[in-house]
Protein: SAM-dependent methyltransferase
Amino acid sequence: MTDTPPPSRYVWLDFNAPLSDARARRLVERLVHPAPATVLDFGCGWGELLLRLLEAAPGAVGTGVDTDGSLLARGHAAAVARGMADRVSFVEGPAATWREPADLVVCVGASHAFGDTADALRALRRAVRPGGRALFGDGFWERPPTPGELSRMWPKASADDYPDLAGLVDLAVAAGFRPLWVEAASPDEWHDFESGFLADREHWLLEHGDRPEAEQVRASVERHRARWLRGYRGVWGFGYLTLGVPSAPSAAG
Ligand SMILES: C[S@@+](CC[C@H](N)C(=O)[O-])C[C@H]1O[C@@H](n2cnc3c(N)ncnc32)[C@H](O)[C@@H]1O
Structure:
């Protein structure tokens, strides 16, 4: 038994995605026109983007769905602190089982909750009410990865894991969306995200690096950093698609 606390989780990140405050502000401004009455966030994590959307759409109510109860608890605490607890529900469970559509539906970094990218876009399309909007944030290849780069990324990484950005937009169109805005995370957003992701464990190691359990923590951060800096940095991109749904079903396509 040890009384050493474990490393904190995600306390250095505002979002669990390569997303700057500046881009989040622009996304939110775009997504709340037309004003949604209902906002749904699949794989919301601690719900920071959902809360910012509800702050910008004061008449709206929101739901965040995620399988990680501890992240949802952080979201609920933030909603209480910001006076929005009566307008947002955090629901623990798999996104794929959610059936209630909304005017604005968000899915950032959580396409795996539905299967592959095309499955996620189809699920997202079904979840958006006519005339509504969606935000889809997901990976794409900035350029074709080399076999050497793939071998240094995540286990079993394959060139088939992602489309390129044009392919990502094509999948959104095939799912029945019109792409209203296409953008991609910048190198700075990636550096901030990956550094913030590793920072909980790096700071813990500064304090507890001599503990027996530090060996595993050190190995996990070094493995992740190598995957990032020697594997996918500059190759794996992350796109943000602001998507529109026609008001009338007959206008689709
Ligand atoms: C990369 S994080 C993105 C979180 C959030 N969208 C954000 O941008 O901060 C992916 C999230 O998906 C959640 N997740 C994974 N599988 C899921 C599932 N089947 N249903 C709902 N959420 C899921 C994880 O718990 C995690 O919070």
Summary: Residues 190-228 form one domain. Residues 105 and 134 are 5 Å apart (CA to CA). The two ends are 61 Å apart (CA to CA). The chain has two domains: 21-141+151-186+236-247, 190-228.
